[in-house]
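Q: Hi! First time doing this. I have a protein sequence and I read that you can turn it into a structure. Is that right? Here it is:
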Amino acid sequence: MTREIIDYGQFADRLRAWQQGRPRWELLDAVQREWGYEDPGGEPGHSRWGGENRTDGIDWDLPVPVALNEWWDSPVNSFAFDPRLYWVHTQWPPTISELEAAADSGLVGPGGDRRVCVFMSEYHYSHEWGYLAAEAELPDPRVVVSVGGAWVVQSRSLSEFLTQLAFERLPAHYGWTLRVRRATVDADPEIVRRLTSSYRELGLLPWQEMGTDALSYGAPDAVIRHGRGPGADFAVVINARTREALVAVAETLGVDWSGDKAISPPSEVPAPLEDLGPLSLTQGDADPRGRWTVLSRGPVATPSVPGAAAALVPASGVLRSVAADQDATTLVAGDTDGWVHVLETDDESPETISLALHRAPVTALACLELDSGRRLVLSGDENGVIRYWSTRRKPLRTPFARRRTPVRALAPAQLETGPALAAAWADGLVRVWDLGSDAVAGLRLGTGIRFLGLDADGTLHVTDAHGTSALRLDPAKLWPHRDLQLRLDGVDWGSLWTARGPGRMIPDLIGKVASDDKKTAMDAVHDLYRLLVSKEAASTAAVPAIPFLVELMTDPDNRSRSTLLLLIADLADVRRARGGRGDAQLAAVREALPTLRYLHDDPESSIRWAANELEQNCAASPVP
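A: Yes, that's right. Below is the predicted 3D structure, encoded as structure tokens:
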């Protein structure tokens, strides 16, 4: 599929059309989506009360502008879902700044209220953003920014400011980036002439942050920022949705981009979808890894759900999906507005519980009563989000799982190994979880799946438009690292330390190293590098982590073997460590050395090289 090219040279026209009365957050939503931000599902992880809140300096008689309240409550507020994209601090309620608008600034009329209500500050507190107290009653007032000890207008409205802030931050995360230093631009003034003659301004006011005074221009699939102020280390910054678009702008400006590290790739890359054909299973088919075998193929068998489940959706809603647990004591229905409706029929006073769990139509539902009596409800939606919760508890804020394609079917069961869940997405991937250990297997079965069923004996029923296949699952091969996951939970990682704080992230990262998705596994190894590797043996979490890493290294199907082996080798490189920590860390790796020596004969040269590094590091003696 060819990606749509968006010409940001036309953005000023879009901005004017929006300013003339389009829905307040329509442009923000569009900008975020165009650059790759996706609604993560679930609930925001950061609330308006989670910023740098103060108890003094607040004028409680001043109203908070409608637009600011709306932004905090809006599902398109990407800051609330992922603040690290922004590197700003928020203030709620807005506080009165000690710096007032100057009488001669033209911001306030004679005798007017010159106070400023601050709602956000730059990460290093070098400046603040606010709105005039005199305009607090307006639904969408102007935004001013503190520059050089004075307030100047940053944006024509709060909603425009928050859209511009997203434009300033998100492209650096989701796009390709080329930064041109001021010295380069000063040495070649033609770069700026080519910029202004080749591209149109976005129509936004110059961005005033850290003395940059940056004016932005639009190009096909790219934006170019010209930092004119003394604080702009990079006089020109190009962000593009594709590498090709960035190179086209660089060539137009006459900027050299040929260096190996001149162009930075996106740091936020969505997981790829599967490229699978239609489901095609026949009796006797088997997974190459022995995880499943097709026992039979028969006519279409749709799940049977009591008709009372459909009645749970109010008359105002449109039914989309229904489910019931194994005894039909829990009925569930989902509608096109993202609501999930649950009724426990055996309750003394049955009452329907309705929750807005999704921001897209509910496409799949499942529920299960565990041996403990606890009842689980799972729901999937058109955006690919799965929510997981117990009927007697609040739903988890974060999604259980998310992929960028609709959820097509869900099926839970109580297996001999414990509760399990199967989920199918529209691209043909089926994932099967062991809920007790969080071990997961990805089965690439094919597109067109309409229903899933999971029996207590481990039989997975997969239904498409032409029939139903019964697959016998082998839990031992399906989740080869299930026991490892359970043993990870037995370590008190929170009491151990990494190079960046407590070790609570370690078990999750080690679990991801076992992923059958190569990028997920590689990213986890790189994160473990940053947390655990130190020649000073500063990490107390490294020693208990080493046996788990070695165990994963012996798995021939591991997708990160060469990098993982280098991680283990570097954990032995503690020659400068002082005290017993270095000795213990080196001893832990040396203990595993006999288990890994067979890798000297591995067919992959990178594995053989890493095995040699491991041997050399283990042979060295730590220096006290």
